[in-house]
Amino acid sequence: MRYRFFAKTWARKLLKFALVKDQMREIRLDPRRKEWIIISSQRASRPMTVMEKRSCPFCKDSPEAKGKQAPYWLPNAFPMLSPDEQGTSALNGTYQRMPGRGYCEVVVESFDHSADLCDLTPDELESAMKLYRDRYVELSTKEGVNAVLIFRNMGKLIGVSIEHPHSQIYAIPYVPPIIHEEANASKEVCPICEEVKAEGRTVLSYDSVKAVFPYAPRWPYETVVIPIRHITSLAEATDKELREIGMSIGRIVGCYHRLFGVKMPYVLAFHQTPVLSSKERLHLHVELYPALRAPDKLKHWSGAELGFGVYTYDFWPEDKAKELASICEKNENLPISSKGLPEPNAV
Questions:
Q1: Rounded distance, CA 216 to CA 197, Å?
Q2: The pTM of the whole model exceeds 0.85
Q3: What are the residue ranges spanned by the domains of the chain?
Q4: Which of 24, 173, 171, 170 shows the shortest CA–CA distance to 91?
Q5: Could you confirm whether domain 2-330 is CATH 3.40.50.360?
């Protein structure tokens, strides 16, 4: 009931859109690749222009934030999945489906309408990581949930519809294929532990956390934040590890913005054991995918990449690692302000 109440309030009073209740959410299995696809047609009614501060549902004076302390979470007003979704499953034959049941939440790390993660203090970042952990633990216990996904979309070029920085959490009824692949790749030797040991691609490090440039990246300045201790989820992290994960993310985001002197659009994703009871066990890590390869140039996927999964990288990874590490060395202390930086004019 809480999800429906917040969704109706946010959509009606702030976004001035109504949830379309007569359209179903459904999860279909793509028979060509055996991958699940979430079909959620009512999402087309969500606002696609960036909402500014005067109508922001995440600022301190909004009805949704009333009585809350940042960081806080609330149900997504335009969810891909709903815990109340009706429908039947068909799990045999070529065309398989199941109801679009699940949970979609928003995490607001700060009441500051223009504060990215790099603009937060270490204490604020630690609090945000603890909230991510708490939501992961609670959603892991929900009936039918097989994976909890924590991620962040940042920047107009990424397609965000609300200007106020925020992260999202999806609790879904299946394990994503990338998590399957990473778990399978970790059965004999943990590749994430190997990345911690590797030299020449370190971006920054703390006592319990290291950030590295991937050995074979897909994005120009892709970075991975790794707890040095082999833990499988945020639930296993100590307060110190959570703090240093948050500080590492904050510094990297700040250095992304420093790279070209513009606000770097990026996506961030926590890769961890899907739920507490999952058999899929993997080393917790956070992947960051910045979208710019130059101040005025976006990274675009080619036909080989989109059509066949044949990824290419236009630089030498070790060189880009040194470039990013050099900027991080000059920006050791948080917060690192991103305020006042222009949006990129990239194509």
A1: 16
A2: yes
A3: 2-330
A4: 173
A5: no
